[in-house]
Each structure stands twice: as C-alpha cells, then as structure tokens.
Amino acid sequence: MNELVVRGDGNCFYREISLWNENKEVNHGKVRRLTNQLIAEFPDLFQPHLFSSPPSVSNHLQKCEIDGTWAETVDTVACATLFQRRICTYSMFQGSWFCFDPVWRALPSISIAKKQCKCPITLACHDFHPASHHFNLLLPSTGNCCDFNTLKVHTNDIQSLEGSTSGKKYA
User: Fold this and answer.
1) Strand order, beta sheet including 96-100
2) What does pTM read for this prediction?
3) Are 165 and 6 in contact (CB under 8 A)?
4) Residue 171 and residue 160: Cα distance in Å, rounded?
5) Rounded to an integer, what distance in angstroms lies between the CA atom of residue 35 and that of residue 54?
6) What is the chain's mean pLDDT, rounded?
7) Backbone φ and ψ of 147, nearest 5°
8) Alpha-carbon distance 34 to 112, whole Å?
9) What is the pLDDT of residue 140?
C-alpha cells in the first residue's frame, strides 16, 4: 500500500478524507464543516462516541469549529456516516486495524461520496505519542481498491510517498 502524506496541522484527518473523495486535500474545511453539521443535527446518535469528560456534544462542536483541531473518534464515526463508508485506521504503534462504521445506512443518493465503490476509506494513524496522532491516506500500490483485503496489510507493507499529493489523481 502507498501512504499519501499530508501536512500535520491538526487538519490531517479531514485533509485525507478530502483527498480520498475529491483527489485534493484543500477541501478539508468543507469535510470538517459537514461532519460537524451532522453531529449537531443528530447529537444523540453521536454522543456515545465522545470520550471527553464530561461527554458534551456542544463542547465538542465548539472546539471543532476551530481550524486545526484534531479529529476524535466521534468525528471519524460521523465522517463514516457522512460518506456512508467504513473508515479503517491502521495504528502504526499497535500494528492493528480499527474500523468505524456509519451509525446508520442511508440511501446511496444521500452520501456525498464521489466514488462509486463501497470499499472502506483506509488511513494510517501515526500514534506513537499519546498526545498527538497524524493520519495519512492509504491506497493500494497497484490495482483497484476493491481488489485486495485491506485488513491484511501490516506496517512493513506500507510505503510512504512524501509530498505525493500535489496535482495527482487518486482513483
């Protein structure tokens, strides 16, 4: 798998989702805004995915309005719901996958995903430090994203493509 590296500015999760969906990371603000709107619209569905103390949707949304605020579990679940895709993150520290499913399944016409396949969105999570995590998009080195079993990928199978996101298409 190839790891597509983006800037680590607190927006990396949203940058990677934008890159996956639109082949460019610059629309990360739109992804953040739509994710926050979904959480605000259905707070009871997303509250169980908050791990702050005390878990408050309104506090979380207020914090997440600030550009550069890191995505948390609730944001990953909301994004999975928004795009109607499972999001799988590979922990580089633990060497294992963590998958997040949409909280509900909608009609395909409701999803904002531009891709037609139903493959999960795959991210590498650089989580070697408890206070900071960085996400990069993982894509197959060859073939179609639906042609391989993502969850069989391990750390030594991931090749970093530093500076790879400028002006390229990712199918």
Assistant:
1) 96-100, 87-91, 121-129, 132-139, 2-4, 159-161
2) 0.83
3) yes
4) 17
5) 21
6) 82
7) -90, 0
8) 10
9) 81
| 82 close to 92: Cβ distance less than 8 angstroms | no
Q: Look at the chain and count its residues.
A: 171
Which tens digits make up the pLDDT trace of 41-65? 999 999 999 987 777 999 999 999 9
Segment 88-125, tens digit of pLDDT: 999 989 988 999 999 988 755 556 777 777 788 889 99
Q: Residue 162 and residue 89: Cα distance in Å, rounded?
A: 19
What is the distance between the alpha carbons of residues 7 and 16, in angstroms, rounded to a whole number? 10
Q: And the tokens for 134?
A: 């960085």
Q: What angle do the packed helices 12-22 and 73-83 form, to 10 degrees?
A: 10
For residue 112, what are the contacts with CB-CB under 8 A and spacing of at least 6? 21, 34, 82, 83
Q: Which of 51, 142, 49 is nearest to 102 (CA)?
A: 49
Cβ count near 169 (within 10 Å): 6
Give 109's DSSP letter. G
Which of helix, strand or coil describes residue 43?
helix
